[in-house]
């Protein structure tokens, strides 16, 4: 592997990298940094955890001059990812005198205005809040020379494409621009054709959805059994664990259960205030919390080296979401594990994701001897009751044969009176009373 000092980066940046323990560049960094340093635009396709943040950050820091206003801009889809990128930027820029400001929704505007007033050469922003600053004049883009769109496919999925175009139209034509994305849908390629000039393309991981370095497994179980299996797995883990859930309600429930079991867990979900989300992430990053329970809001933007295990408590709704989730472990060339809990109702969705996994995938049902009993909806029997020697469906219309009937539209009290009348009618028939039939 190529060493960073061979890429022509300034000594001040190399000193910070050395302190961080970074000596050799990853493939995406080795490929992109020299091209960006030559002021040529770049399109980089790489899976999460491959080191693309450093690829654009180091080259940007190398070319920016301190105390000359905003010269670099990074746009990210979520506040968590924006905060992560800004945090990495500040580490790399430790000896350069370059300042980074982070602007995102959910944080008070006053805090961000103060940071901008103190002076910043790089702005890391989410699209909506950046537009807010542009409209009030607190951020000017006339001197921007370096622009990065990170996780462009996610911004497309979140409906930010118009915002991105609005922002880019305000930047100078003479700029160096890079676009990084895990996938390259048609809309992203069109965007790149409109705003990038003769870009150099690096599709380093276009076909690599294997989750290299991650021991992947799945377990098909009843939904009600998930929590017991969750406890079994996390009790065996020495490092940190992230548990991904499909909804905010599920996230809250799982975090509550873990607290009841005396685990040191924190949660992140969409309805939490930004302050609480930042508190949770701070505890997890510092190691004060062992378990993070989160919705997919956190599947990008978490870079915690000590994450040993990722558990998909629910099957994600897209294959790329799966890879972004499990990419929270095995960061920066490390190793890790990922286990997906597949409820019976999610087997179809999981089978679609499995087709995209190009690595060995352990079937824990076989290893643990757990039998799968998925009910066949085509063979499902409608519950029945036996009346006078005949079997009738519980959904038979009307209160015939002394049955309860559906009594559609009636309240519970009326259904109770119906049952009593039907029972009385049945008794009259039994003891020689007059029958309706």
What does this structure look like?
There is one protein chain. It is built from 16 helices and 16 strands. 38% of the residues lie in helices and 17% in strands. The protein has helices at residues 11-20, 27-37, 52-63, 79-92, 109-117, 127-136, 152-157, 161-168, 186-195, 226-234, 248-260, 274-286, 319-326, 347-354, 364-368, 412-430; strands at 42-45, 72-75, 100-103, 122-125, 146-149, 176-181, 200-202, 214-220, 240-244, 265-268, 291-294, 307-312, 336-342, 361-363, 384-387, 390-393. The protein has three domains: 4-202, P-loop containing nucleotide triphosphate hydrolases (Rossmann fold, 3-Layer(aba) Sandwich), CATH 3.40.50; 214-368, P-loop containing nucleotide triphosphate hydrolases (Rossmann fold, 3-Layer(aba) Sandwich); 381-425, no CATH class. With 437 residues, the chain is an alpha/beta fold. Mean pLDDT is 82; it is low at 378-437. The radius of gyration is 29 Å and the shape is globular. A seven-stranded parallel β-sheet has the order 3-4-2-5-6-1-7. Strands 10-11-9-12-13-8-14 form a seven-stranded parallel β-sheet, with helices on both faces. The chain starts with 10 loop residues before the first helix and ends in a 7-residue tail after the last helix.
């Amino acid at each position: 592997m190529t060493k960073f000092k061979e890429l022509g980066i300034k000594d001040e940046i190399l000193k910070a990298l050395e302190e961080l323990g970074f000596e050799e560049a990853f493939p995406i960094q080795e490929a992109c940094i020299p091209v960006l340093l030559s002021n040529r635009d770049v399109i980089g396709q790489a899976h999460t955890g491959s080191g693309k943040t450093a690829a654009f950050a180091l080259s940007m820091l190398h070319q920016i001059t301190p105390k000359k206003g905003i010269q670099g801009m990074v746009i990210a889809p979520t506040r968590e990812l924006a905060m992560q990128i800004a945090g990495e930027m500040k580490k790399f820029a430790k000896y350069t005198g370059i300042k980074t400001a982070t602007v995102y929704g959910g944080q008070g505007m006053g805090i961000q205005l103060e940071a901008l007033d103190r002076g910043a050469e790089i702005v890391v922003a989410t699209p909506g809040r950046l537009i807010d600053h542009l409209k009030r004049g607190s951020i000017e883009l006339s001197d921007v020379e370096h622009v990065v769109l990170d996780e462009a496919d996610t911004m497309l999925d979140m409906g930010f494409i118009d915002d991105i175009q609005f922002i880019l139209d305000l930047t100078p034509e003479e700029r160096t621009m890079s676009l990084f994305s895990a996938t390259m849908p048609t809309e992203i390629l069109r965007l790149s054709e409109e705003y990038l000039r003769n870009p150099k393309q690096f599709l380093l991981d276009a076909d690599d959805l294997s989750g290299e370095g991650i021991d992947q497994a799945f377990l098909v179980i009843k939904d009600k059994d998930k929590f017991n299996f969750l406890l079994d797995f996390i009790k065996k883990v020495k490092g940190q664990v992230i548990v991904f859930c499909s909804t905010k309600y599920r996230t809250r429930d799982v975090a509550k259960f873990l607290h009841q079991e005396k685990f040191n867990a924190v949660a992140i979900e969409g309805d939490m205030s930004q302050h609480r989300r930042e508190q949770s992430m701070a505890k997890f990053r510092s190691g004060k919390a062992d378990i993070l329970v989160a919705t997919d809001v956190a599947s990008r933007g978490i870079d915690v080296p000590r994450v040993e295990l990722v558990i998909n408590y629910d099957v994600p709704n897209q294959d790329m979401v799966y890879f972004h989730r499990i990419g929270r472990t095995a960061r920066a060339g490390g190793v890790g594990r990922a286990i997906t809990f597949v409820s019976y109702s999610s087997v179809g969705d999981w089978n679609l994701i499995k087709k995209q996994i190009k690595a060995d995938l352990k079937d824990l049902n076989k290893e643990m001897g757990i039998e799968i009993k998925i009910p066949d909806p085509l063979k499902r029997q409608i519950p029945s009751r036996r009346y006078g020697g005949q079997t009738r469906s519980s959904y038979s219309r009307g209160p015939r044969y002394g049955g309860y009937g559906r009594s559609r539209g009636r309240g519970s009290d009326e259904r109770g009176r119906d049952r009593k009348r039907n029972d009385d009618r049945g008794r009259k028939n039994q003891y020689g009373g007059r029958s309706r039939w």
